Amino acid sequence: MRWLDKLRMRIAMLFNRRRAAARLDEELQDHLEREIAANRAAGMSAEEARQAALRSFGNPALLRDQTRAAWSWNSLELWLHDVRYGLRTLRRTPGFALIAVAVMALCIGAATSLFTIVRAVLLKPLPFRDPDKLVMIYEHFRGDWANVGTFNYNVVSPADYYDWRNESHGFEDMAAWRWWGCNLSGSNGELPEALPAGAGTWNLFSLLGVQPALGRTFSQADDRVDGNTVMLSWSLFERRFTGDPSIIGRQIHLNSKPYTVIGVLPKSFTYPDATIQLWIPYMASGSEEWLHHHDYHQSRVVARLKPGVSLATAISQVEAIQYRNHLRYPAAPVAEDVAPRAMIDDLAKDVKKPLILLMCAVGCMLLIGCLNIANLLVARGAARQKEVAIRGALGAQRFTLIREQLTESLLICAAGGAAGVGLSFAATKWLASAWKDLPTAQSIHMDGMVLGFSCALIILAALLSGVLPAISSTGKAVLSTLQASSRSLGGNLSRTALRKTLLMIEIAVTVVLLIAAGLLLKSFMRLRTTDPGCTTQNVLTMGYSLPSREYDKPDKVNAFNEALLARVRSMPGVIAAGLCSTVPGDSWGGDDIFTIREHPPVQASANLPDALNRVADAGYFSAMQIPLIEGRFFTTQDRLDHADKVILSHKLAQTYFPGEDPLGKHLHVVAIHDRDYEVVGVVGDTLYSVSQPTKATMYFPVLSGDNDNGLTLVVRTSGNPLAVSLPIQKQIAALDPDLPVSDVRTMDQIIGESLGNEKLSATLVLAFAVLSLVLASVGLYGVLSYLMTQRMTEIGIRIALGAQRAQVLRLMLADGLRPALIGLIFGLAASAATVQLIRSMLFETGPLDPAVFTLVATTLLAVAALACLVPAWRASRLDPMQALRTE
Fold first, then answer.
1. Quick check: 640 and 705 in contact, CB under 8 A?
2. Which of 102, 670, 836, 876 is the most exposed place for a label (fewest CB within 10 A)?
């Protein structure tokens, strides 16, 4: 049990160091006095007895240190000594310490915040059972058909999903879901509310491994066309129903139809989006005809792999089924192939590249910060070189000197890291809320893993910023260092070279960041100034959806729409108003294939023409100021049985009617009542997304009386469009008190929201780049100031011997700008290669844009010149007599 006694002794020494040290001194003194007494008894004089006792006993100080080393935590004591020494050193230079800590706080805080989000979105497993076994399966069109739309992964039709699930055997199970929307009726004085919702097959939640917080999930008996059960999200349960468990078993009205609440989903379940407020059975969201259609691509399919079955094997079975369907239905756009994607990649598909880019930008900024601190430490090492040399001459080991300086670097990074972690709490919260449609946003929080990452980052930063300065300041022979410190002329050339090298790397990395930021900013400005094909100024939009249970006849639908338009158009300040299904810039909105009756029939579905489909009324085009190119707009006569008219976009007319007049021709659209539509007009092109190219579009009359989807009211006003928002909602309530509105936004807001993530990415990268530029310029200023101090005597002699002050100014500027110019050249070369990685994120901007490269190079040289000018000017104004007296 000697190890236990030794451990007990060390613990006692840790907490009772002074008492144990005093007891040790007393014991050593007692042994020495006994030895002296024995020598006196043997006949020695007092002095001889003492000298003999010391020779026999040994050096008391050495014995004391050896005993303490055996009793105590020697390595801990050494480290604490280094910490105390480092703190004393930093207190002597508070300005340096504050600057270094602030730099590390910014860099480590930004890196910690980005890592928190990247880990939650890209690295952390999804909160489902065996999430690595979950895959999304999409239809995939080959060849030319893939270029018709913008999606390589196409959503799935209900009939295809059921064929896959019933006939393939490589997956444990498959489930499907689709977006849905509904009006939640008011009760007990509450207002009606339009809610985004989801419709999922009965096995969706069991496939994911999700258990309800209250009640139960769907059963197979619930999943039918006339299904009337509903599951609430936790947010809706708390917000609308005050978290009352008695809601289970009660009825709520969705689209005026009663639904029984059977369960409440857990708070952690936010798939696929936190905006989904409730779920209904999949079959209940459509008709019997819809379920058997291979053309209605609206669903997403989730599959779970069977144990021991590879993804390639399982997918090959689904591919065979899909290709058979493709051959069976040549007249419909049935894909030839399928494409799988891991569920976590599917959720993060729109944010993965921007997040990785931001993480790289933060990494570059951290590297620049470390290089800057390393430069400052090299300068401090130059000022302390005589102290280090003297300590080396007195016997201090080089490892001890390096360890002390690394401890100083660690203290700086630890203090900065602690402040940075505090900043990252607020930064993470802001970024998670500012980033639109960030998946799993509810699960983003700082935990032990994030704090561990921060600690590792602190150690890495301490090594990056401290190793080179520590090795540099302790690497010279003692004698040569003392000799060099005794003269200022020509000394410390290697230290100067090291600082210049660090500075060149710093500037090169800054150039890469600045060019990436410049490209993203230019791309965003191009996006922001893109013409969507319609007016966006003073235009208000709001959505509503008439419940089919009450508005079950086309006459009722048309009566409401026409009454609403008449009321709105008569309001003060309203210039024009109209109805449509999807406004430009808002979303894809749906597409359909068609044939042209006057053209030869197309045999292969891969060659069938395809276009976005929209419904609009007679006043929509004038309200949005979409120009009429030829023909006419819709009229009030294009209604019900006479609503067999269609208006084409210019892109559609050019693409499918080249060299001919489309007016009077007929489009046959299977999905829209399977009938012919006469072309009566051609209008200007609009963009469904600002970042995507123009897509062929066909417009159908809103007065056909269809009520399958919601409509958007578009109002152009003479002043602030939001001022008429509440009066319009009152007009809607006057027509139907139970009808809620949704998405009340201006067109400027719609365009701005669609570009929100691009703006955020460009702004953050630009902010990191500007901070890096500031750090690089401070480093450049420090290097030149250090050079001027080192060469003060040389400059004084030059001036005394007749050198012109302008010559000295040019000499110092050249000395400072040389590393900046070399760093700029290396940075431009590195940028030419690295910016290819962000090519897909750029809009109408080449990765080697000469304007951006020129602007960055000019800006950096200008900033470098300004950073060099002050110390160079001071050098040229130097009094030679004062410099020589200093020497």
1. yes
2. 836
Angular region, 249: left φ>0, alpha ψ -120 to 50, beta rest: left
**Mean pLDDT of the chain, nearest integer:** 82
Please tell me whether residue 203 adopts helix, strand or coil conformation: coil
Q: Is the dihedral of CA 256, 260, 262, 267 positive or negative?
A: positive
The maximal CA–CA distance of the chain, rounded, in angstroms, is: 138
Both tokens assigned to 817:
């700008």
Tell me: the pLDDT tens digits for 758-802? Answer: 888 888 888 888 888 888 777 777 766 666 666 666 666 777 666
Q: Which of 34-48, 351-365, 474-488, 658-672 has the lowest mean pLDDT?
A: 474-488
Residue corresponding to tokens 């008219």: 645
What is the amino acid identity at position 629? I
Over the stretch 637-660, which tens digit does the pLDDT of each residue have?
888 888 889 999 999 999 999 989
Strand partners, 258: 253
- The rounded distance, in Å, linking the Cα atoms of 24 and 34 is 15
User: Could you report the per-residue pLDDT of 321-359, keeping only the tens digit for each?
Assistant: 999 988 888 767 788 889 999 998 888 887 888 888 888
> Could you give the CA distance from residue 334 to residue 160 in angstroms, rounded to a whole number?
9
φ/ψ of residue 197, rounded to 5: -140, 175
Q: And the tokens for 810?
A: 């040019």
Enter the tokens of residue 847: 């990765």
Residue 426 burial (CB < 10 Å; 0-12/13-18/19+)?
A: exposed
Instruction: Report the alpha-carbon distance of residue 821 to residue 802 in Å, rounded.
Output: 30
Question: What secondary structure letter does DSSP report for 760?
Answer: H
What is the Cβ-side half-sphere exposure of residue 241, based on CA atoms within 13 angstroms? 23
**Dihedral, CA atoms, 599, 605, 606, 610, nearest 10 degrees?**
60
Residue bearing tokens 């009152």: 730
Cα radius of gyration (the chain): 38
Rounded distance between C-alpha atoms, residue 453 and residue 421, angstroms: 11
Angle in degrees, CA 506, 508, 514, rounded to 5: 100
- CA 105, CA 9: separation in Å to the nearest integer? 40
Q: Bridge partners of 252?
A: 259
Structure tokens at 721: 């469009």
Give residues with Cβ within 8 angstroms of 19, minimum separation 6.
Answer: none
| CA dist., res. 37 & res. 16, Å (int) | 32
Length of the chain: 887
User: CB of 481 within 8 A of CB of 398?
Assistant: no
In angstroms, what CA-CA distances link 373 with 468, 511, 584? 11, 19, 51
Q: Which pTM does this prediction carry?
A: 0.78
DSSP of 729-796: HHHHHHH-TT---EEEEEHHHHHHHHTHHHHHHHHHHHHHHHHHHHHHHHHHHHHHHHHHHHTHHHHH
Q: What are phi and psi of 230, to 5 degrees?
A: -145, 145
Task: Note the Cα 399 to chain centre separation in Å.
Answer: 42
> DSSP alpha helices (H): ranges in 491-550?
493-528
**Beta strands of 688-741 (E only): which ranges?**
697-701, 711-717
Q: Would you tell me how many other CB atoms lie within 10 Å of the CB of residue 659?
A: 5
Going by C-alpha positions, the residue among 118, 105, 112, 107 that lies closest to residue 357 is 118
Mean pLDDT highest for which of 64-78, 309-323, 695-709, 769-783? 309-323
What is the rounded CA–CA span in Å between residue 437 and residue 486?
64
Cis geometry, peptide bond prior to residue 354 (ω within 30 degrees of 0): no
**What is each CA distance from 563 to 428, 573, 575, in whole angstroms?**
48, 18, 17
What six digits make up the tokens of 674?
């399977």
Comparing CA positions, the residue from 155, 148, 164 lying closest to residue 297 is 155
Which of 243, 226, 246, 329 lies closest to 286 in space, CA to CA? 226
Looking at the DSSP assignment, which residues form a beta bridge with residue 197? 180
Which among 582, 79, 146 is positioned nearest to 337, based on CA atoms? Answer: 146
pLDDT in tens, 240-260: 898 999 999 999 999 889 999
For residue 405, how far is the Cα from the chain centroid? Answer: 36
